[in-house]
Amino acid sequence: MKKTLLFLIILFHFSQKAQSQEYKEHLTVINTFLETFDNGYYGPLSVDDIYLYCNIKGNRQSKIIISEISKANVVTPQKEVKIQCKNANCVTGVTGDMYDSLTFRTDLSGFDTENFALLLNLLIDSLRNR
After folding, report:
1. Do β-strands 91-92 and 101-105 pair in parallel, antiparallel, or remain unpaired?
2. Which partner for 60 in 20, 73, 86, 94 could form a disulfide, CB atoms 3.0-4.6 Å apart?
3. Single pTM value for the model
C-alpha cells in the first residue's frame, strides 16, 4: 500500500512537469533505486541524443538506441526485467556484442519487477516525447 501510494505521488508529480524535463525526473527516480538494487551492480542510467546508457559495476557500459526501444517487460517476476528492442539487436553489450534487449536481473529477494518495469516505461515514453 505504501509503495503504491508513493508511486502515485511520484507519478502525479511527474505529470506536472514540462515534457522536456520529464525524462530527467524519471532517470533520477530509477537511478536512486539502482543505487541499492543488486548491490549497486547496475546504474546509473544516462541519456544522450541517441542512446540510453546503463553503467555496470567495473566501469562497463551497455547502451540501447532510444529510437529502437519497444518497452520494458517483466520476464521473470521478482527476478528479471528487460527493455526490448523494436527490431533485432539495438543493444550494444559490455563486450561489444549486439543483443535484442537490455536486462536487469537479480537473484536477491524483494525485486518489485512490476514497479521497475513501469518506471522504465515511463522513462521510455518521456524519451520519445522530448
Report:
1. unpaired
2. 94
3. 0.83
Locus of grid cell 524483494 = 110
- pLDDT, tens digit (0-9, with 9 covering 90-100), for 1-41: 556 656 656 766 655 555 558 899 999 999 999 998 998 99
Count of positions (residues) in the chain? 130
Judge contact between 92 and 63, C-beta under 8 A: yes
* d(C-alpha 94, C-alpha 55), whole Å: 9
**Residue 71 is placed in which grid cell?**
518497452
Burial of 120 (0-12, 13-18, 19+ CB in 10 A): buried
CB 65 within 8 A of CB 90: yes
CA distances from 25 to 10, 18, 103 (A): 10, 10, 22
CA atoms of 19 and 9, how far apart (whole Å)? 18
